[in-house]
Design brief:
Number of strands: 8
Distance between the termini: 29 Å
Strand content: 5-15%
Largest sheet: 4 strands, mixed
Order of helices and strands: EEHHHEHEEEHEEHHHHHH
Structural class: alpha+beta
Length: 268
Amino acid sequence: MTFSSVFKHGRCIQILSDSIIILYNLFYEALFMDASAKFNEKMQSADPKNPTDSQRHDMLYKSLVKAGRAEDYQNIINLLSPLPDIIRYASSGEFKNVKVGIIGGGLSGMAAAFELRKLGFDITVFEPTTTHMGGRIYTYYFNDNKTLYGELGAMRFPVSHETVWHYIDLFKLDTEPLLQSDPETFFYIRGIRVKNDSEGKNIFHKIYPQFELTVQEMNTPWPALLGKVNSYYLSTMPPDIRKQFLMILPAYDHRYQSIENLSSRQAL
């Protein structure tokens, strides 16, 4: 987590930047990736570039309906939405000449700097890397005209993350739909390279033998293994517990805590 240090009247106040913008995390991915993957698998060509809010919400709702969790829709929209504008808490320019140090130029750090600047704070961002800002959001270009590139950090963001889309729309950034499967890409695991066929047969026949899998696992396509884990644990939780995946709380329900640190193998 990224923290911003706000210095005011000789006191150091720690502000949790994630309260300004909630970072995409593994728990969130587990909660909604299986639903969006199933929906996008058949709807790739229908996913628009630069979707409107209504288009995003429609995509989200349909994916949740398909996953059998339509009741999660409103919790996602409400809990992943940005906070009210910061100028509702203080006047614009009220903190002119008050210095603030923000540790890290990642997504949260940049959001914190942008929002606090509205109130007049003198912002300094401390970032160890000199090649880019954005933290783990890192697109690497392999040629000068930037036609060949890869994502070395986060490779996607969901249509449901209202806070992220708030900044995407604010800064008029262009977006592209995510391709869930591309037969011209490869998996390289334990010295074995295979093409990413849509049915997962290459992994089934060439990658699976590299691991000590159970008979049940050996006979289950790898996308289904992950989907099985996600669907089982989420479907057995009531909506009020599932929404804790989207919240920062002092304490969590024991059902949430019981799966918090499970690996896919342990979950199976």
